[in-house]
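Tutorial handout. Part one gives the primary structure; part two gives the three-dimensional structure as tokens.
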Amino acid sequence: MEKILIVDDEKSILELLIVVFEKEGYAVKATPSGTKAMEWLEKQDFDLVITDIKLPEISGLDILKYLQEKRPDIPIVMITAYGSIKQAVEALKAGAADYVVKPFDIEELKIIAAQALEKRRLREENIILKRELKEKYNLMNLIGKSRRMQEIYNLIEKIAGTESTVLITGESGTGKEVAARTIHALSPRKDNRFVSVNCGALPESLLESELFGHVKGAFTGAAADKKGLFEAAEQGTLFLDEIGEMSAYTQVKLLRSLQDKRIRRVGGINEIAVDVRIIAASNQDLKESIKEGKFREDLFYRLNVISMRMPPLRERREDIPLLVSHFLERHSRRMNRLKKRMTPKVMKILEAYPWPGNVRELENMMERTVAIEERQTVTEDCLPEELLHPQKAAEVDVLPDSGFDLKNHLNDISIHYIEEARRRCQGNMKKAASLLGLSYRSLRHLIEKYNLKIPREEAER
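Part two.
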């Protein structure tokens, strides 16, 4: 039940309004005193205030000023005598929802009150909706509303509370470490350390020492015992990035540690029990690495208990506006600058660009925009050449002296894009046609022209 506070020093009006609004189903508190009204507003919550402008001691304008400073979410309707209309207009400018003039039409006041309450409800619903959208489309620092990202969110929420090892795959810049940190932050281990190591950034001998530690004298320069990252991440999470770059010898030692939950420092003889959750990541196809003899199959299956693939940005283009807004806000706040906005045309260019560097490249672009661009509105001429003409930025094959079959080359390119569009649209021909800027009939014609497979349900049409 919505609560209305009514303030008027005319007893007859006060009693009338109590009866009218209680009959309408509102909870009503009423007083002839502006001072008493202010006391109630400091201690209680109301959905609407209806007050006379002229009151003894504290006026309706004083109540309006208080609400604008302390509770701007509560609308206020002013009641005024004919001779005080000027004050009522000033009250509107100061933030009042509306006003009525004595002697007022009670039906008019009921409508004005209902409209003010409806606007308040809409504002509250909008705030709640924005909060829910932010929570739904922003899990920690994973931003996105696309179906692919919703699948990632759901998987993270399911696995965060488990102890299972996770293998995250995906291209560079897709947010594999962010996903790993999110899993840790939502897990029972969140109060302990998240330790990250890039297995491809360290030589074999140094990586082994970093992971497992070493004892004094184990090698030249080992002047004292040193704990490794397994011990540093005790009861926390150890993130092994670019696991595919790990040497065969270190893979064997890692496999044994995962199996036994014990490690041995380099040069040491004692085994140390460790309680660590492992999350690994790779931008390589580890199954191909297994075939090539570069990665151990038994280690792969030990790591791949739960698999998660981070989609490239080109597979979730609908997330680009959210990411742009997020990065602009982040870097504007960091640089203490006003948040910039993109024109609709610029946003279309950003959505069309293939982003080979994925989310990382997009963030770098937004940071550059905040740092360099002086205008608040970002237009096409603010964008670098590679965004405006991505085909020029791409490496172009040199035309051989003997020439080549341009028609077949163009056919191959067309087939590639048709198949990619159909894959991305899960075989939905109408959506694929739209993605390619074609009509359904034109796409169907090209598929038949290139002898591509037509889904059964499409072939029967």
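Part three, for discussion. The longest strand covers residues 277-282. The CA atoms of residues 174 and 312 lie 6 Å apart.
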